[in-house]
Amino acid sequence: xxxxxxxxxxxxxxxxxxxxxxxxxxxxxxxxxxxxxxxxxxxxxxxxxxxxxxxxxxxxxxxxxxxxxxxxxxxxxxxxxxxxxxxxxxxxxxxxxxxxxxxxxxxxxxxxxxxxxxxxxxxxxxxxxxxxxxxxxxxxxxxxxxxxxxxxxxxxxxxxxxxxxxxxxxxxxxxxxxxxxxxxxxxxxxxxxxxxxxxxxxxxxxxxxxxxxxxxxxxxxxxxxxxxxxxxxxxxxxxxxxxxxxxxxxxxxxxxxxxxxxxxxxxxxxxxxxxxxxxxxxxxxxxxxxxxxxxxxxxxxxxxxxxxxxxxxxxxxxxxxxxxxxxxxxxxxxxxxxxxxxxxxxxxxxxxxxxxxxxxxxxxxxxxxxxxxxxxxxxxxxxxxxxxxxxxxxxxxxxxxxxxxxxxxxxxxxxxxxxxxxxxxxxxxxxxxxxxxxxxxxxxxxxxxxxxxxxxxxxxxxxxxxxxxxxxxxxxxxxxxxxxxxxxxxxxxxxxxxxxxxxxxxxxxxxxxxxxxxxxxxxxxxxxxxxxxxxxxxxxxxxxxxxxxxxxxxxxxxxxxxxxxxxxxxxxxxxxxxxxxxxxxxxxxxxxxxxxxxxxxxxxxxxxxxxxxxxxxxxxxxxxxxxxxxxxxxxxxxxxxxxxxxxxxxxxxxxxxxxxxxxxxxxxxxxxxxxxxxxxxxxxxxxxxxxxxxxxxxxxxxxxxxxxxxxxxxxxxxxxxxxx
Length: 724
Prior knowledge:
mainly beta, Maltoporin, Chain A, 22-stranded antiparallel beta barrel, 5-stranded mixed beta sheet, 4 helices, 5% helix, 57% strand
């Protein structure tokens, strides 16, 4: 019998919220004040603070005071770009790229050349959520991107950084959006918020959306339903509780990646190709729930208590006609398609997968003074538990097809998937201390230290344990900043971190095991220049490294009757780069967001000498993006928007002997606001890939193979938002 998660936590959270609201109404009006929603309107795409940059990753800090590189993508920009999934939003920053971001499946990204860890690199309001989901944007106020080692913010995570989604808070709002695009996608969304009671001490915010997905890829239809509730309850003048609940049900046919032809040639295909086009292929189903609760209590003017609890749970039925290798001739022996375009097709199904993150964090923040030196400190403890459930999957060879014809009469397997068992128990218990020391009016010192205990037990798909881990890590962070002027601040920082080991699943690798956790290290030097009140220019030079992991030794395995690779942890990857980000409100009419990065992601210490000194697979040396919005003076309600992206070539193979060529891509858009009765209407038209350029958006080495995904052709999206 498949594992079914309990739902008692939802009832308990709702009961607690009801109790809090009831108590708040019972208080006298003099004891209570309305819930205050902070924020600024009219600042365009520029943000001044971020949650993910502070110690523990849940406290708002000013961007100019963070000795790290943080990008904030505002709701205005997400709306103008009509972003529906994470990869579309992340393309607005040059340090980020797709890394096995398959359509119809959950997406994976890299930051600064390091793939993000699905277990620990994604956050909502600073708290860990499972990365194996397509997090919705309807209830998000902004997207925060921390670049680099984030041990002080999150403990164990990818050295590339983290992505944090900040939810909308209650306010008086009534909004409705309709949209369409691509091959006829239909989209509707609603946003409603209000305050309750005479004292308005309880506020709520409800978001809902429905989408019939008709993407540019053929035979990849799907649908999505989303609902969220946010509530803020001020139970006294010093205590505020915040609650968040969101649920999403997404069902869509997955689109598999492609492989090299004969190991030497990029496949000549169109952007809309789908190698999993057969009518019998079921859609991949991803159902996710994210629940968060936060308490803030002001003990006195210089001491505050915070407590956060979060549960994130995802259920996945993963289905795909999976194209992998080719047994028709010798060229397929290296794990590629055949030189003539043939490929082997497998019926892959893994039903009933469950991934769950439970995260609790509490602590104190305070201010103190020692002589002329000021301290702003945070002391906290954090507990993260991650559980993964999976059964034996179906992965059966069903025949061959060809990328040039795609007309083979291939039938599905009749084998059932296996009983679901727990395959991973992972926990991180940590204590962290951070002190921001104001040495002089211009100079600050940042000292951080986290002690992290990691425990782990791994089981095979039949419930038999085969791996365990119990280890303590000491993760220091030190930084310093100096304000040369009131506008220009320079900083330097050094951090140590750790990343959980990769699970080599038997579907993809010969060595079914959990790889060892990887120690990470980073040094960064940067500058931040406030051009004006609503503009910030950031620049950073960094070097970070971690042990290298790669797939090798592709060969036929008679035990499973198909070919697999071996996952190896050997040598290291050293990423050295420079990045610049500009968020610029040039005038009241012109807003700009731009970033650029140069990166050397060098492999070393590998026994396969051909890859030493080469760039990591799928990571370009150069990337630059620019987005602009200009309000026309002749038409006061009409904005013209434009975007440009440049990405240099990137390696498809470990030795970089085959590369995907670089490209320029241009986007365009219009935004028009009008009054319709008592409502304001905002019309948006977005054109992606204006000149219909073919390009490879995603090159990665995952699940034992080098995989390629074409980028989107020219597509149109249109929407209208009604604010009542």
